[in-house]
Amino acid sequence: MNDAIRDRRSSMERHLQTFLLAVSVGLVGWGGNKITTLSEASIRTRAAVESSSAQLRDLKDDMSGVRDQLRDFYLRSEAERVHSELAAELRRHDKRLLDLERQTHAKY
Fold it and tell me: Which of 10, 37, 49, 79 would bridge 74 by S-S if both were Cys, CB 3.0 to 4.6 A apart?
């Protein structure tokens, strides 16, 4: 009877060990799958961040180009001021030219 109990007990221990080994292998496989999934997600995230960074750099370059172009243009108020100054200077030159023409015609 002791032998039968011992055989049954050792048989149960082997079944339990097999079950625990199967659970352990399953957990290791599940963990490896999770690690692989997370590393793939990390790679995709890193690629997306690098792409976004490149797009931001391009936008910054474009914006600096636009700012450089804007420096070449006047604001409306400044353009009106420059226009009025140039118009006044042109009127002075016209008046001076007319005066010189009159003086020249008066002498001859």
Answer: 79
